Amino acid sequence: MKVFRELWGSLFRKPHPAILRNREIFQDFDQSLPLSHYDFVVFDTELTGLNKRKDEIVSIGAVRIRNLHIELSSSFYELIRPVTLESTDSTLIHRITPDQLRNARPPEEVLPDFIDFCGNALLVGHFVGIDMTFLNRTCKKTLGGHILNPSVDTMRLARGYIEGRGVYSYGHTDQSISYRLEDLSSRFDLPRFKPHNALEDAMQTAYLFLFFLKKLKKGGIKTLKQLYQAGRIWRLM
């Protein structure tokens, strides 16, 4: 009955002003412009678990990329108070305790600030589908709508790049390669940040993303539309 009431309420809730602003921004979105034209917000979330029906976001962190450079002065990080304040197995990973969350703001207060921080930027994440699923589920539940920012997955870029090089060089791909964020950062000798902290993971992902953008530029990929096709293009190189 509780789930039904929440679903019914979300269907008829008037969208939050942040959701309406977001819809207006992306009403006519052009993918044909050079990559340097776009802002990117690289983000990460920490969760109580991976169950899409019951688990919740407990922190969100993000950094901005403008003119293909990380803006260290422009970042976002907040703890988010979940409905259920109790320790879970994930607490051992991200080390965010119920005591820390007790005084945090709820998602209906934090997420409008995050949406406005993102503005017209594209969202970037590592295995970004998980983060987008929880983000949009929470936005729908608390703000009355999904956000429309297009997203880019650095894991997908990594697979396209590594598998494409493997096929080109050896005629096959190495199935033992790990696509975890930490392992890819070590593989490409990138600066290292503390794992399982939303802001630190966002920064780690930002460096990985810029690494791929440099490779993309050398491969002649210059527009956002070409970026979305990068996996297929790399396989042909």
Describe the protein in words.
With 237 residues, the protein is an alpha/beta fold. The protein folds into two domains: 2-152, Nucleotidyltransferase, domain 5, CATH 3.30.420.10; 154-236, no CATH class. The protein has helices at residues 2-12, 17-25, 91-94, 98-102, 107-118, 128-143, 154-170, 181-187, 198-218, 224-228, 230-236, and strands at residues 40-47, 57-66, 69-79, 122-125, 151-153. It has a five-stranded mixed beta sheet with strand order 3-2-1-4-5, sandwiched between helices. Strand 2 and strand 3 (69-79) form a beta hairpin. Helix 1 (2-12) crosses helix 6 (128-143), helix 2 (17-25) runs parallel beside helix 5 (107-118) and helix 8 crosses helix 9. It is globular. The termini are far apart. Residues 167-172 and 232-237 have low confidence and may be disordered.
